[in-house]
Design brief:
Layout: E1 2-9, E2 15-22, H1 25-34, E3 38-44, H2 63-78, H3 83-93, H4 97-111, H5 116-121, H6 129-141, H7 144-201, H8 207-221, H9 223-241, H10 244-254, H11 258-281, H12 286-296, H13 300-314, H14 320-325, H15 331-343, H16 346-402
Antiparallel strand pairs: 1-2, 1-3
Length: 403
């Protein structure tokens, strides 16, 4: 199979570009025309288009792409469209090229006899494990459309939580970048202009002023290396943050710093309750569901607690007991789960816990943002104010001498 680039106008009158796999150019044209499109051009991709260096940083298929796919695919299944036809239709409406190609591969494998869940699993990290397990449960119970409906709701809520966290971090990050920029400008452009004035004084300068001048001289002489060093430090921090060791350290710190601890626990509780409820209602066995949820939780400390809880559940111990013993989960979580276990209605109790903690996460996010704003402003004032103060001290001495 070769890959062909195309330009078409689909049956809805929308111009589109993309790629399609076919045995020949004529086969590619016939395939596109079969979907009701007007074909403008079809051209086989060159080796340069598929070169090994054409890579993407991170997963090119984002959560919003998967959420949109699930919502549209659910609508098709609910309207009575078959899985294969639905996959074909999704390929023409999906704008993400990587997801479009994966959907084509899934369609081919389903036509060969694979289940939809197995076909998705063959696409590596394109489709989340949570989606694959939900689809497998839906296929096993004959409720595939219901599984997609629930996973849509799950992903939409998850995306909302991520958006709130991102919004909370924008302000402090911007202020810190501005602070670094201001300090560099002061050291490189402002401080050197005052050095000539200080030399005419003939007086011994205060220690803070000497330190600032020394730092300024170093930055002026090595500005390229200073900027390169700052960039290198940021890159190293981001790299280490994404390593397993960095995630372990970050997870432990997030459960020790008071305000961040409150947010981290509530966020984990919301995600745990929401995902567990969705999986159990879809027919996923409890032990398997705990393992899936553990991999969804990003905090490594809480993830280990859930894996340990899964081992306990496998031995016949109720899930609420290891969660209580961990002393990390709030009382409400394991009390509600215990009630659900005793009444045989665990998923309903988890739903109530999820609703409560979704609201709590919003409150915690606002509190985190409110606390970070003055903290960042104080940091900016101390750094910039310290540099300005070091310059003002000898200037005041000059005014005294002039008086």
């Amino acid at each position: 199979m070769a890959t062909f680039k195309y330009k078409i106008t689909d049956k809805y009158g929308k111009d589109k570009k993309g790629t399609v796999e076919a045995a020949s150019e004529d086969a590619a044209r016939q395939k596109l025309k079969g979907d009701g499109a007007i074909v403008h051009s079809v051209q086989e991709t060159t080796s340069l288009d598929n070169a090994a260096w054409n890579i993407s940083i991170g997963n090119p298929v984002k959560l919003k792409d998967i959420t949109l796919f699930c919502r549209q695919f659910y609508s098709m299944l609910n309207a009575g469209v078959t899985v294969v036809e639905g996959l074909k239709m999704m390929q023409t409406s999906t704008e993400n090229a990587v997801l479009r190609k994966s959907l084509y591969n899934v369609q081919v494998n389903v036509e060969k006899g694979e289940t939809l869940a197995n076909a998705m699993a063959l696409e590596g990290k394109v489709f989340p494990d949570l989606l694959i397990n939900m689809v497998a449960a839906g296929e096993a119970t004959g409720n595939l459309s219901v599984a997609f409906e629930r996973i849509c709701t799950q992903f939409e809520k998850d995306q909302k939580l991520r958006s709130m966290l991102t919004s909370a971090m924008i302000y402090p990050v911007v202020v810190l970048i501005v602070a670094v920029g201001v300090v560099i400008i002061l050291m490189v452009n402002v401080i050197p202009n005052f050095q000539e004035i200080f030399k005419t004084m003939g007086e011994d300068l205060p220690l803070p002023t000497k330190i600032v001048i020394a730092v300024s001289d170093f930055m002026v002489a090595n500005l390229v290396f200073v900027i390169g060093g700052i960039i290198a430090i940021i890159v190293l921090i981001l790299y280490f943050k994404n390593t397993e060791s960095g995630k372990q350290i970050n997870s432990k710190l997030s459960l020790k710093i008071p305000i961040i601890k409150d947010f981290s626990i509530k966020n984990a509780c919301a995600k745990f309750s929401m995902t567990m409820s969705t999986l159990i209602m879809s027919g996923v066995p409890l032990v398997e569901a705990i393992g899936i949820v553990a991999n969804v939780i990003e905090n490594r400390v809480i993830r280990k607690i859930l894996f340990d809880a899964r081992d306990d559940v496998m031995q016949g111990i109720p899930m609420s007991e290891p969660l209580e013993a961990s002393e990390v989960f709030p009382q409400m979580v394991y009390h509600m789960i215990r009630i659900g276990e005793e009444t045989g209605n665990t998923e309903a109790m988890l739903d109530k816990v999820a609703e409560y903690y979704e609201q709590e996460v919003e409150t915690a996010t606002k509190n985190l943002t409110t606390a970070m704003e003055p903290a960042v402003i104080v940091l900016l004032a101390v750094v910039v104010g310290g540099v300005v103060g070091a310059i003002v001290m000898p200037m005041m001495k000059i005014y005294e001498m002039a008086g």
